[in-house]
Design goal:
Layout lengths: L6 E5 L5 E3 L2 H6 L7 E6 L6 E4 L1 H12 L6 H10 L4 E4 L5 E3 L2 H7 L4 E7 L2 E5 L1 H18 L14
Antiparallel strand pairs: 1-7, 2-6, 3-4, 3-5, 4-8, 7-8
Length: 155
Amino acid sequence: MPVFIGTFENKVDRKGRVSVPAPFRQSLATESFQGIVAFNSYRSSAIEACGIEFIERLNESVSEMALFSDEQDDLAATIFADSQQLPFDGDGRIMLPAKMVQHAGITERAAFVGKGPIFQIWHPEALDHYKAEARKRAKSQGLTLSLRPAGGGGR
């Protein structure tokens, strides 16, 4: 599964096309769909993005929830109803849908930020603010992480 790291900022052209960072495209090179799957974040003013394999895994996770429960219905509607497959063009660009651009407040530039198995697309200034706040929260909560043993062993 692809892992997305780093932050990249790219120009958005008048038609709404933006180049997906080369390292992100390289991470997606072996996927069956050559592009990204994107949907509006329900937690922030950003666009969530991933490869097709990750969205299939999300589908499996949602499918394990109680069918027709409010939780299953809410997550399915939030994630899948507005998701769109955005194929790469010959130059590695995608066309950002107008509703997603509006949700994220993206104008002339878009910031791509890796978040492990997913990445997000932000208005650059909003991303700077979000990252600063996330660092403050992590520091104030004393967040830490245990490193899993190599080879995918147990916790």
